[in-house]
Design goal:
six-stranded parallel β-sheet, single chain, 0% helix, mainly beta
């Protein structure tokens, strides 16, 4: 646990060239007032890997001087598994924020579930091709749910998010006939 207030990022994990680590755990941290983003996990060179990242039980308050298109949680290349659960992600009504932003170069897997998204442009952004993220039950207030962007195409060729519950607004239960 802990608290961060201000700065460019609350947590910026940028793995050096050829560096490898197995686990990054961010648990029970209150983060607010960041100028660029809450948590960003990337690699600084062409190689380097994070095996598993877990962001659990945190509170994000996106207040302050957010420039461009802020990403409250952003994950890119070099990450194998991502778990984002039990967080409160509050965009505080400023337009253009993403809750969880999966970057175009992410090729890992994982799950985003049990979070509460408030007033963000899009709760979850998926790049399409290459991403193996699954989306479980999340709650949403004043925000779009899932936004497909990036390199993928429409329909099943997109490949990215694999919803395991009913977070897609157009979801309809299967009709069963009687005989």
């Amino acid at each position: 646990g802990g608290k961060t207030l201000g700065y460019q990022y609350a947590i910026l994990a940028s793995l050096a060239e050829n560096a490898h680590t197995s686990i990054l755990l961010i648990d029970g941290v209150s983060m607010e007032g960041m100028r660029v983003g809450g948590v960003r996990v990337v690699r600084s060179g062409a190689t380097g890997t994070f095996k598993s990242i877990s962001i659990n039980g945190c509170q994000f308050g996106a207040r302050g001087d957010w420039g461009g298109t802020p990403k409250i949680i952003s994950v890119g290349a070099g990450v194998s598994e991502l778990v984002v659960t039990g967080n409160i992600i509050d965009g505080t009504g400023v337009p253009g924020k993403y809750g969880v932003f999966i970057e175009d170069n992410f090729s890992g897997g994982g799950i985003i579930s049990g979070n509460h998204f408030l007033d963000v442009y899009s709760a979850i952004r998926d790049p399409g091709m290459g991403s193996g993220i699954r989306v479980g039950v999340n709650s949403y207030k004043g925000t779009n749910r899932i936004r497909y962007e990036g390199g993928g195409t429409s329909g099943s060729a997109r490949g990215g998010i694999d919803p395991i519950i009913t977070d897609i607004a157009a979801w309809q239960p299967q009709q069963v006939g009687t005989t």
